[in-house]
Amino acid sequence: MEINTSQILKGTLEACILQLIKNKDMYGYEITEQLSNYGLDMVAQGTIYPLLMKLEKENLVVSYLKESNFGPPRKYYSITEEGNKYIFNFKDVWKNISTTITEILKDD
């Protein structure tokens, strides 16, 4: 049975996006590029935009337009206080879960 990396990433991608935006306001393509730089090049732009809309709907990010030297204005995303709380809590949960999973999956 083949392991689907995208399926494994699905639940953690929102947190990765929030952390990137926490470090610096970004637009969609820039987020995709940053994820790719970290080795998540299998994440398509078509995946990022629905997630950004979901995060905005949940008040974890806000968007604003900013002029670009390379065409029309770009839609940038900025993390909200709710988003900061979410990422703080996610990191704590992730640490516990990843430690447990690593322990379970370690070689004998």
UniProtKB/TrEMBL annotation:
UniProt cross-references to InterPro entries, sorted A to Z: ArsR-like_HTH, Metal_resp_DNA-bind_regulator, Tscrpt_reg_PadR_N, WH-like_DNA-bd_sf, WH_DNA-bd_sf
Superkingdom in the source lineage: Bacteria
Pfam (any one): PadR
Keywords from the UniProt entry: DNA-binding
GO terms, molecular function: DNA binding
Ranges for domain Transcription regulator PadR N-terminal: 17-86
UniProt name for this protein: PadR family transcriptional regulator
